[in-house]
Amino acid sequence: MTNFFDKLFGSARGSKDEAKARLKVLLVHDQVDLTPSQMDAMRAEILEVIARYAEVDREKVDIRLERAHDQVRLTSSVPVRRVTSRTGAVPA
Amino acid sequence: MSECIVITSGTGGVGKTTTTANLGVALARLGKKVVVVDADIGLRNLDVILGLENRIVYDLVHVIEGECRLRQALIRDKRTENLYLLPAAQTRDKNAVGPEQMKKLVADLKAEFDFVLIDCPAGIEQGFKNSIAGADRAIVVVTPEVSSVRDADRIIGLVEAAELPEPQLVINRFRAKMVKAGEMMNKDDVLEILAIPLVGMVPDSEDVIVSANRGSPAAFDDKSIVGEAYRRIARRVTGEENIPFVATEEPENWWGVMKRWIGLGEGKEVAG
To answer: Which of B28, B149, B210, B218 has its CA 20 to 30 Å from the CA of residue B226?
Structure first.
């Protein structure tokens, strides 16, 4: 329960946001049957491929599965610092 | 035109049986001819919630196995016109019945009644398959909790896989005070996740326990806020539109605001 002081100083964030966030992740994984560790592995591999072409701000990378209507969608937000290869060729 | 509606949820203990009983009572009070069917073979409960447990002679399995006629097994609720119960067998297991037999039973009941409501057992196995076999549509009951919403999502998928139309949602055990404090998912949070139409919101209330103790569903009680929530659901089920989900709350004065702010306020319960 949030108490008076939490409310007074605005430090409380209701647990319902946590419930909602957990559910969103949970339902996607229930649907596609991909474990969180498989998801981590996929994320790492995707980043590895991108890193061949561009320098990525790894701290701010956001790659996740999302549900939109009846579809599960892989969305990614990958901030690029600079492109390292303009030719698209795989660096040796 | 008669209709068979299955009341389901996935998780046990979220209020399927209470919802079935109350919706049955509320529909009957609207003048519809209703039969509530307990499909939880081996764990019957709908009879107790309705207070009809002492009048059972025959049950659903007797009917299916041809040991009695359908009419002999139907128990009439004397408190209202047009409400009947078809009880589950208590001493058999859930494999005593199959989907084809349920389809036939539902077809026979639909010939006699406006609404056939099926109280589905918890889980996604045989009992669930039997319950949805003859249904025209489904109502999914959920409480605003992570585990319940997760299982509801699974059930919605299974209902759609069975080629039933998009189910409707009842949000049960809603606590206005916790929602206000941000400690419980609100209506919009649950709907955003489950993405099916809402047919009702039922506040968490002691009325439910009292009425279960007495075997008299809250929908009989005109003063009960839970009863009012179920009566509104019944009206929506019959196709009435634009019934508000949330009753207007008392206008708040500055003291009420202060009390709520410091966590003393009794969040006024609201019915939907």
So the answer is: B149
Q: A-B interface: how many C-beta pairs under 8 angstroms? A: 52
Strand order in the sheet with B75-76: B75-76, B83-86, B34-38, B115-119, B3-8, B137-142, B168-174, B198-203
pTM comes to: 0.82
Q: Does A16 contact chain B (CB < 8 Å)? A: yes
Q: Which residues on adjacent β-strands are paired with residue B76? A: B84
Q: Flag whether residue B260 sits within 8 Å of chain A, measured between CB atoms.
A: no
What domains can you pick out in chain B, each with its CATH number? 3-261 (3.40.50.300)
SS3 B61: helix
Torsion sign, CA atoms B235, B237, B240, B246:
positive
